[in-house]
């Protein structure tokens, strides 16, 4: 079965837009872990959220989320705006939910040598592999479901193509694919950015006057506070200046912005969902469609577009619809 749902169809079938948090709240527990990656000295941060009464674990109800190119997972996937975080929402459906930070992001430690770009996609896949191995061993499972956002889709896609035996389902949210944008390989290990600059980039394509409507100022404040919690040193500047590894920039110049694939989607054999925001011009629809066409060995593949949403849909008002569509997909695997 294959389906392609674009915004016009979604608007017609989702007119009611019932709140995503319709179930009775379940008491959740949270635990943080550090596990060793393959690089000596690199410790990878993992967070787990699950219902307190969850005792039996299952591959189809175990989910791991991987972040994008500048922010760690906890400032997006576990950001409590609106009714709560996406991690809490999935856990409230009875899932064992995990998030991971690649080396140098959030709670994960960078390598000792920071004289050149690091946290490349290849290294990120090594970190994801360490996270998956830890979860599968702890839960006594052989596979789980993966959610990747933005650059995280290149990480999870690479893993799913290389180790299909461990992937029960794959969600690719706002996936970049091939372009001829070009770029220069950086020399420094870190890049710096402000919250406002990052938000402007993430909301590339939003119509004039709609940015604060879909991402209210109160939510933006919560997001900025979450960023500062992961990088308190950023407050030494006004406005705060955050930093993230440049490995993804180097990969962009060498691979996807030079029309060179970093993995083969044809090797993915898990059910796959591509989902994106209608106003996302950072990773345009044409890239999602090109990727969709290459998923020839996925037993089920979907492409869904969320109306009135950008690349940052997880923390925008369109998140209720995003949560439901992704949950429907996860529940079927």
TrEMBL record:
<feature type="signal peptide">
    <location>
        <begin position="1"/>
        <end position="22"/>
    </location>
</feature>
<dbReference type="InterPro" id="IPR029058">
    <property type="entry name" value="AB_hydrolase_fold"/>
</dbReference>
<dbReference type="InterPro" id="IPR000639">
    <property type="entry name" value="Epox_hydrolase-like"/>
</dbReference>
<keyword id="KW-0378">Hydrolase</keyword>
<protein>
    <submittedName>
        <fullName>Alpha/beta hydrolase</fullName>
    </submittedName>
</protein>
<dbReference type="GO" id="GO:0016787">
    <property type="term" value="F:hydrolase activity"/>
</dbReference>
<feature type="domain" description="AB hydrolase-1">
    <location>
        <begin position="63"/>
        <end position="313"/>
    </location>
</feature>
<dbReference type="InterPro" id="IPR000073">
    <property type="entry name" value="AB_hydrolase_1"/>
</dbReference>
<dbReference type="Pfam" id="PF00561">
    <property type="entry name" value="Abhydrolase_1"/>
</dbReference>
<dbReference type="InterPro" id="IPR050228">
    <property type="entry name" value="Carboxylesterase_BioH"/>
</dbReference>
<keyword id="KW-0732">Signal</keyword>
